[in-house]
Specification:
By secondary structure, the chain is an all-alpha fold. The chain has one domain: S15/NS1, RNA-binding (Helix Hairpins), CATH 1.10.287.10. Helix 1 packs across helix 2. The two termini are 27 Å apart. The relative contact order is 0.13.
C-alpha cells in the first residue's frame, strides 16, 4: 500500500483533525491490506508466508471490531457498513 492510499483511508475514517490511530482508522487500513493480500493470494496459491500474514491480519481486524462493538455499537455499525464487511 502506498503512502497516498493510506492517507486517503485515514482522511475518510478519522474522527477528528489529528486522528490517525483510532480503531476505525486501524480497521480500514487493515481491510485495505487484507484486500491487497487476497488478490496476491489468488495468483500465488502456494505462498504460505503471505497466507500466514493474511490470517494474522484477519484476526487482528476481528479483535478490533469486537472491541469497537463492545465500546460503541453505533460506531461499529457505521464502520462495517462503510467497509461492506457484514450483512
Amino acid at each position: 500500500m502506498d503512502k497516498q492510499t493510506k492517507q486517503n483511508i485515514i482522511s475518510e475514517f478519522k474522527r477528528n483533525e489529528r486522528d490517525t490511530g483510532s480503531t476505525e482508522v486501524q480497521v480500514a487500513i487493515i481491510t485495505a491490506r487484507i484486500e491487497q493480500l487476497t488478490s496476491h493470494m489468488a495468483s500465488n496459491h502456494h505462498d504460505s508466508h503471505t497466507k500466514h500474514g493474511l490470517l494474522s491480519l484477519v484476526g487482528h481486524r476481528r479483535r478490533l471490531l469486537a472491541y469497537t462493538k463492545k465500546e460503541n455499537p453505533d460506531r461499529y455499525q457505521e464502520i462495517i457498513t462503510k467497509l461492506g464487511l457484514r450483512k
